[in-house]
Write a structure and sequence with these properties.
The chain has about 280 residues and is of the alpha/beta class. The protein has helices spanning about 75-85, 105-115, 130-135, 185-200, 205-215, 225-235, 250-260, 265, and strands at about 1-5, 30-35, 35-40, 45-50, 65, 70, 95-100, 125-130, 145-150, 155-160, 165-170, 215-220, 240. The protein has eight helices and 13 strands. The strands form three sheets. It has a six-stranded mixed β-sheet, with helices on both faces. A five-stranded mixed β-sheet has the order 11-10-9-12-13, sandwiched between helices. A two-stranded antiparallel sheet has the order 5-6. Helix 1 packs across helix 2 and helix 3 (about 130-135) crosses helix 7 (about 250-260). It comes from Streptomyces lanatus.
């Protein structure tokens, strides 16, 4: 994860946090800004948003995030201001957790932080979406874990080892493409190819161990029984769908947020601007 603190305006940021909702100096916000939908969770209120990712509703709709990439930072800021500006408690500066695609790395995190600045955050934490999904599933992160996230416009396959990203692959295909003939087979072939490539390039046994254990499946694609059935047959390995898989990332980000608020000293161990745990090279 990465922490970017805002300048302090007084002594309130240094206080030891009280449990939500008793902490009056700050609030917490978790964000999952996907290409198709944006979801938000506010501490003490739970999930408050699950809406299309558009800058302007109606005929003039503009899509600031495409295929997992923030292509319009000002547009994303306007969207967040419109959706959340009036929902956050007044006179507070939220601690914000944002889920991120694994392979966009620093570019996505930088643009996400710039977009979130409109909410005047006290600090911004980023967490890879695959790790957030694992947190939602209460997965045992002491063992290697494969996460397959089939989203609306993007599919990621991520290998977590000790909770950190060890390897990752992605393809610009998702559930919104399923209306086109043959796309279902393309997604299955892409996921199978990505995992096969990870197995071949891994000089250790962790990828094979994770696959034998069973991959964790999330995203809207996990709601498609046909995809699960065909993917299980193609991989010759079990798949475990996360409950309510389309909201797994935001619920994991909320867990991460609650943990960060409860243990503020842990955030200080991550240097400002430091990188998220990225894929290892084998």
């Amino acid at each position: 994860m990465t922490l970017v603190p805002r300048p302090r305006t007084g002594g309130s940021d240094g206080h030891r946090h009280r449990p939500w909702p008793l902490c009056r100096q700050c609030c917490g916000l978790a964000l999952d800004m996907g290409s198709a939908r944006t979801r938000a969770w506010i501490a003490g209120r739970g999930m408050i948003l699950d809406v299309p990712t558009i800058t302007f509703p109606g005929a003039g709709a503009v899509y600031p995030i495409q295929r997992g990439t923030i292509v319009d930072v000002p547009g994303a800021s306007r969207m967040l201001e419109r959706l959340l500006g009036h929902r956050l408690p007044r006179l507070t500066r939220p601690l914000v957790v944002v889920t991120t695609p694994v392979l966009d790395g620093p570019a996505y995190r930088e643009r996400a932080r710039a977009a979130v600045e409109v909410l005047r955050p006290r600090a911004v934490l980023t967490v890879p979406a695959a790790r957030a999904i694992a947190l939602t599933a209460n997965a045992d992160l002491s063992r290697p874990l494969l996460v397959v996230d089939i989203g609306a416009h993007l599919t990621e396959v991520v290998l977590l080892v000790d909770g950190a990203v060890f390897d990752a692959r992605r393809t610009a295909l998702g559930t919104t493409d399923l209306s086109m003939p043959g796309t279902s087979a393309e997604i299955i072939e892409a996921v199978t190819t990505m995992i096969t490539s990870m197995l071949r390039q891994d000089r250790t046994s962790v990828t094979a161990d994770a696959l034998c254990r069973g991959a964790l499946l999330a995203g809207g694609g996990a709601l498609r029984p046909d995809l699960i059935y065909r993917l299980t047959g193609s991989l010759h390995a079990p798949l475990r769908a996360v409950p309510a898989p389309h909201t797994a990332a935001i619920r994991g980000a909320a867990k991460f947020l609650q943990s960060a608020h409860a243990h503020p000293s842990a955030r200080a161990t991550h240097p400002p601007g430091g990188p998220d745990p990225g894929p290892h090279t084998h």
